Amino acid sequence: AAVGLIIPAAGMGERLGVGVPKALYTVGGQTLLGHALRSSVDSGVVSSVVIAAPVGLAGRVLDILQPPLPRTVNVQVVDGGRSRQESVRAALAVLPENLDVVLVHDAARCLTPAKMFVDIAHAVWSGHDAVVPGLPVVDTLKQVNGAGEVTGTPDRSVLRAVQTPQGFRRAVLERAHNAGAQNGSDATDDAGLVERMGSPVHVVPGDEEAFKVTRPLDLLLAEAVLARRRA
Ligand code: C5P
């Protein structure tokens, strides 16, 4: 089954504080979006890509991709939305008809190894309608109320920090996003919308290098990972 990829890349990256939309920030000679595209295309499983770009920059994001992508991959760009969920929905609307598996991958998880795309696509092909990569949680997490008081400590051993790419049977992802838009939900990941329909989501092992570049310290980590890859 042919695999499409959606890259939500429309975030402003306020927590990163670099003054340009996060996906267009350059680290190790390439934008975060460029790195994310490169590894997804290198995986060999993706035949079509839709990028949700920061509003007003849709015309520019492909110019900055160096070297150009192989012509075997079809790339489209749409304007992103106000939330990540809206950005994914906008991209889903223009995804070519013939694709029945969709991966959704944050531009901010720019150093995700190519193999992760293969693993997630395989998990969907093998029969899971929704697949997310996840890692054990290292911190102890507390639930708090508005007054800053702790109201609970969830058992860490049953928690996973989930990453992207998340993989879906296309019909399931579309149904989940339509339901999400109707209910006015604002999910921070796509699997969350699938869960809200009561549908199963399968977890496979994540990868530490699929971390999300969010805060300034993450840029240092990204530089270090890239330097190690070049060594
Ligand atoms: O803000 P956060 O790091 O959680 O965003 C995750 C991904 O969603 C990023 O790649 C970001 O560019 C994207 N995003 C988007 N549209 C928005 C907000 C975030 O495509 N309105």
TrEMBL record:
It catalyses: 2-C-methyl-D-erythritol 4-phosphate + CTP + H(+) = 4-CDP-2-C-methyl-D-erythritol + diphosphate. This is 2-C-methyl-D-erythritol 4-phosphate cytidylyltransferase. CDD domains: CDP-ME_synthetase (cd02516). Pathway: Isoprenoid biosynthesis; isopentenyl diphosphate biosynthesis via DXP pathway; isopentenyl diphosphate from 1-deoxy-D-xylulose 5-phosphate: step 2/6. NCBIfam families: ispD (TIGR00453). The keyword Nucleotide-binding does not apply. The record marks R15, K22 as: Transition state stabilizer. GO terms for biological process: isopentenyl diphosphate biosynthetic process, methylerythritol 4-phosphate pathway. The keyword Ubl conjugation does not apply. Its EC number is 2.7.7.60. It is an enzyme of class 2 (transferase). It comes from the Bacteria. It comes from Phytoactinopolyspora mesophila. Belongs to the IspD/TarI cytidylyltransferase family. IspD subfamily. It holds the Pfam family IspD. GO terms for molecular function: 2-C-methyl-D-erythritol 4-phosphate cytidylyltransferase activity. InterPro entries: IspD, IspD/TarI, IspD/TarI_cytidylyltransf_bact, ISPD_synthase_CS, Nucleotide-diphossugar_trans. Catalyzes the formation of 4-diphosphocytidyl-2-C-methyl-D-erythritol from CTP and 2-C-methyl-D-erythritol 4-phosphate (MEP). Keywords: Isoprene biosynthesis, Nucleotidyltransferase, Transferase. The record marks R156, K212 as: Positions MEP for the nucleophilic attack.
